[in-house]
Amino acid sequence: MGPGVHTVRSCDREPVHIPGRIQAYGAMLVADAVTRRLLRAGGDCETLLGQPAQAVVQASLAELFDHDSQEDVRFLLETAGERPNAIRMLHPAADPARSLVATACRSGGAVLLECEAARPVSLLTDLLRDCQDVQTHLRLATDIPALWQSMTDSVRHLTGFDRVMLYKFHDDFSGEVVAEAMDARLRPFLGHRYPASDIPEPARQLYLQNWLRIIPDVHVAQPPLEPCAGEESSPPLDMTHARLRAVSPIHIEYLKNMGVEASLSLSVLVAGRLWGLVACHHYAGPRFLHPEQQRALVLIAGDFSHALEALLAQQAERQRQVKDALLASLQGKISGTQPLEALVRRIAPDLMQLVDAEGVALVDNGEIIAMGRTPAASVVVFVADWLSRQLTDDIHATNALGRDLPESQAWRHLAAGVLGLRLGGYGNIFLLWFRPEIVVEELWGGDPQQPYTMHPKSGVAHPRTSFETFRLEITGLCTAWTRHDMYAVKRLVPLFNAHMLRIADAVLRISE
Ligand code: BLA
Fold it and tell me: What distance in angstroms lies between residue 479's CA and the mean position of ligand 1's atoms?
């Protein structure tokens, strides 16, 4: 398979890290890590280093930079690790007045030195001030939606991109635009969903490692690196950590289909996982950001990630406290030696409230107590019987009962989802919580059932051409049970077991 060929199956194996090419808004010099001899060169060497790549690759590294830069070049090469090292300012020998921001990273036996044009020093104070303003705003946000909006507004202010979205991954890696700041003339993407294949696994892996991806101009050719004599047939380099790594042709096609001219993504990490991206579009021509602005954005994205992680933890803690309070009150009520059936009747409202269910049932060796909105008793028994075969650790939950147990579809207005718990002790005693169907209309950016097409002859995959709103009505589901729900109901088990022991005890005492 040649470069630029993508089959559907290859989407998740796309070798995005070894494109053999780079984006030409910077210059890349590849040197042997030991001898420091230049092996390859590419990108905009003409503007940044004063000579074309073919000439650059014949030179020695020392010849390319002015006298004052030599020590920094040595530093970059010596400290190059797997990840790019701290930036240094270099001045090309051909034009010492020009300033380049450079970093280096290792790739196998080579060092990749990447140079980008520096931002004029006179603008650095403004950048610092803007960053401080953004940090203050992020700190002031006390709830999650406010933090999200503050982040998209800030990134738009800092970058001037036409549209800035906060894109959150769902568990299946499809995603959703949860906040947006944009030019008022644009059609909003807020609330739209996108399929997982739009950002396949290898790309997500890269964004977990590199927290900024900029594509300043989707129309500029991405040239291969020029090899020095003898290097012509060397395999392409691993560019996982290279900022200038060329963009996969399928993604360029995707952006063009969306009408995007320049794009920028910042990673949002929560608890070490890729929670989402701040995804930016520019439609009115290319959009270049200086490396200092890029660094500033990475710092801000880090601040945002921390603030989000803290607010999410607070939210989870609040939810836990609500459940703890309900459990404490239930603990007080599950007392005495009332028969189980009477007990469940009495505490049914609390049991439902514990997990936001609309119905609860006790199935005690074929005896049914059903409270709230539940299907008919015969159906409850049928579901309990099915549940008893699904249990892991005495518990099972589904928000798609109609899919898992097709016979149940007719009662989805009462039981689109069930959470079942086996109470230990005597035989088959189950508590079942029911939630009714919630019909939702999802908005997708293009038809999610046709995220890309495959050329019948070549097997080449092409992203969809329409991103128009595609409405999808989702039926048959209830709101998903959370791990807090599962955890809360599991804590009922010892309370019920103690109750059953008390009853047994009382029976024994009477018969004595
Ligand atoms: C990369 N896909 C991306 C990126 C985004 C999206 C944000 C990160 C790079 C960037 O900032 O442009 C997807 N962009 C979106 C989505 C929205 C958006 C969902 O604005 C919503 C508004 N893409 C496909 C298919 C493949 C594919 C079928 O549609 C399969 C091969 C690949 N997407 C793909 C690849 C990358 C990518 C390979 C990595 C590009 C790179 O970093 O080189």
Answer: 29
